[in-house]
């Protein structure tokens, strides 16, 4: 009888070993990057991420039906504002007592307005129907549709916010369906498309309609627009009605203290957010960088318009200083397909890429250089940069004051004096940083869409402070906060670090 129990013991031991081995395999598989995409710097995006605006837009319009707005204005606005205010109070108190990190915790809760199609889908279709690669130019010679692509941040953010939650990858923001649950309100009006593709008076009329629609919303009336996000990423967009929405959060390409693009008091870092342009050039990924870095035999490269207005007047002076110098390539260029190819070749052959101010302090050229692995040499004393609360641009770019750059021989001597070890380190950092400037569908963790919401989270307490403060001031109170934290941005050339 005893012999009959021996096989059972072996069976149990075998079963135990099998389960143990299966458990170890399951754990290893769970940790495998095949199951969950790594967030390491070398894995810039998952293979299915689409970074082309045209391709992504085509898929979006094919898959997403236009919807009619439910967020229309109603009679009895004061009652609606009061009801919303009470609902927000109850929601905020509940979160305050249940979430130990409120209001600092992520994800941010964003309510996306369902605006009438003439402000959203119709404009996207207008872009798609009229797209052409050739002769439709702005007054300063830029191809209109390509310019819209550079400033298409409004599309990338909106497309991600309204996508089904099952298809989204970001955990920094969620869309809520009840306004009282929202931290912020997103206004999905395509201000740049309407400015460039509509007749002037027609565009202004649409701006006025959009303004009335937005400011009629109870949530806007409750906060004065302080918790509303409006994409105005081209410096000409929404210009005729900006004064009526200046308390809202603007998504901008840069800021400007000269008054050429924004009136005093309209934009400042404490309220608004700088977003990167959509790069013109293709990403030079890890394999590309490994192939091109040994072949970068050009010291300094620039291709673009050599004469600009406003702050960009420094370009022609730099051209006079640098043209003809050994190891320097300065070319007049445009943004068409031929220009794109020439710029891409030039940037991938160069150690440094010149990034001077244009008509505005910023330029898409900076982000072209970053995704090309070419160290930007930034000469723009008024420049503000995207996500600077998170990213340290000193690790990937050189900042040169205009005064130093124009001294005879100074800039080239400075660049030639940078040690190879530092150049290599900055190139490695560029490979890591490029992911932060690639808009995509679906939006990627640590991509620009994700960093928008991480930066917004830092503004939230201040937004709520000014909203609540504005609601309780009485006649005779000091209604305006006079604390001014906007010193001039003065570039100081850093010393060469070995």
Protein model, in words:
The chain is an alpha/beta fold and 498 residues long. The protein has 2 domains: 53-274, no CATH class; 286-437, Rossmann fold. It has 17 helices and 11 strands. The chain has helices spanning 5-31, 53-63, 77-98, 121-130, 144-150, 153-162, 191-197, 200-215, 218-223, 286-292, 314-322, 337-348, 364-372, 402-405, 410-416, 420-433, 448-472; strands at 108-112, 173-175, 184-186, 228-231, 249-252, 273-274, 298-304, 328-332, 350-356, 375-379, 398-399. Strands 2-1-3-4-5-6 form a 6-stranded parallel beta sheet, covered by helices on one side. Strands 8-7-9-10-11 form a 5-stranded parallel beta sheet, with helices on both faces. Helix 13 links the parallel strand 9 (350-356) and strand 10. The longest helix is centred in the first third of the chain and has 27 residues, at 5-31. The protein starts with a helix and ends in a 26-residue tail after the last helix. Residues 1-10 and 24-44 have low confidence and may be disordered.
Residue-averaged pLDDT: 84
Approximate shape: globular
Instruction: List low-pLDDT spans.
Output: 1-10, 24-44
Lateral strand order in the biggest sheet: 2-1-3-4-5-6
User: Helix proportion of residues, in percent?
Assistant: 40-55%
Number of strands: 11
The SS-based structural class is alpha/beta
What is the topological layout?
Blueprint: H1 5-31, H2 53-63, H3 77-98, E1 108-112, H4 121-130, H5 144-150, H6 153-162, E2 173-175, E3 184-186, H7 191-197, H8 200-215, H9 218-223, E4 228-231, E5 249-252, E6 273-274, H10 286-292, E7 298-304, H11 314-322, E8 328-332, H12 337-348, E9 350-356, H13 364-372, E10 375-379, E11 398-399, H14 402-405, H15 410-416, H16 420-433, H17 448-472
Parallel strand pairs: 1-2, 1-3, 3-4, 4-5, 5-6, 7-8, 7-9, 9-10, 10-11
Helix pairs in contact: 2-4, 7-8
Protein name: Exostosin GT47 domain-containing protein
Keywords: Glycosyltransferase, Golgi apparatus, Signal-anchor, Transferase, Transmembrane
Organism: Vigna angularis var. angularis
């Amino acid at each position: 009888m005893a012999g009959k129990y021996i096989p059972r013991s072996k069976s149990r031991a075998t079963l135990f070993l099998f389960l143990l081995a299966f458990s170890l395999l399951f754990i290893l598989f769970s940790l495998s990057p095949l199951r969950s995409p790594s967030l390491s710097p070398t894995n810039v995006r998952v293979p299915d991420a689409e970074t082309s605006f045209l391709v992504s837009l085509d898929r979006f319009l094919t898959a997403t039906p236009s919807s009619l707005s439910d967020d229309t204005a109603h009679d009895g606005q004061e009652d609606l504002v009061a009801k919303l205010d009470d609902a927000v109070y109850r929601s905020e108190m509940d979160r305050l007592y249940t979430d130990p990190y409120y209001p600092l915790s992520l994800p941010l809760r964003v309510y996306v307005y369902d605006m009438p199609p003439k402000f959203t889908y119709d404009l996207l279709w207008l872009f798609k129907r009229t797209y052409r690669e050739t002769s439709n130019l702005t007054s300063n010679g830029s191809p209109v549709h390509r310019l819209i692509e550079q400033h298409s941040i409004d599309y990338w953010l909106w497309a991600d916010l309204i996508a089904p939650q099952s298809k989204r990858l970001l955990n920094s923001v969620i869309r809520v369906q009840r306004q009282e649950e929202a931290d912020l309100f997103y206004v999905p009006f395509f201000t740049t498309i309407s400015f460039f593709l509509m007749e002037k008076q027609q565009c202004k009329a649409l701006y006025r309609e959009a303004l009335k629609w937005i400011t009629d919303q109870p949530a806007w009336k409750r906060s004065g627009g302080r918790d509303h996000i409006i994409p105005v990423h081209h410096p000409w967009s929404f210009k005729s009605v900006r004064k009526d929405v200046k308390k809202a959060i603007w998504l901008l390409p840069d800021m400007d203290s000269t008054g050429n693009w924004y009136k005093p008091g309209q934009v400042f870092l404490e309220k608004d957010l700088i977003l990167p342009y959509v790069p013109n050039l293709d990403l030079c990924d890890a394999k590309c960088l490994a192939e091109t870095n040994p072949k970068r035999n050009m010291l300094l490269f620039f291709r673009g318009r050599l004469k600009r207005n406003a702050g960009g007047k420094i370009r022609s002076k730099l051209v006079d200083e640098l043209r003809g110098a050994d190891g320097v390539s300065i070319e007049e260029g445009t943004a068409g397909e031929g220009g794109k190819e020439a710029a891409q070749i030039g940037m991938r052959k160069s150690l440094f890429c010149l990034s001077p101010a244009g008509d505005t302090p910023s330029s898409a050229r900076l982000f072209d250089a970053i995704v090309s692995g070419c160290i930007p040499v930034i000469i723009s004393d008024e420049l503000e940069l995207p996500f600077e609360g998170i990213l340290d641009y000193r690790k990937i770019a050189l900042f040169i004051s205009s005064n130093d750059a124009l001294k005879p021989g100074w800039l080239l001597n400075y660049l030639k004096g940078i040690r190879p070890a530092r150049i290599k380190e900055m190139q490695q950092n560029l490979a890591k940083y490029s992911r932060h400037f690639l808009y995509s569908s679906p939006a990627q963790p640590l991509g620009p869409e994700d960093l928008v919401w991480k930066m917004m989270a830092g503004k939230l307490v201040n937004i709520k402070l000014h909203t609540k403060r504005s609601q309780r001031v009485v006649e005779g109170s000091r209604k305006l906060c006079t604390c001014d934290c906007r010193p001039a941005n003065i570039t100081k050339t850093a010393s060469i670090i070995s």
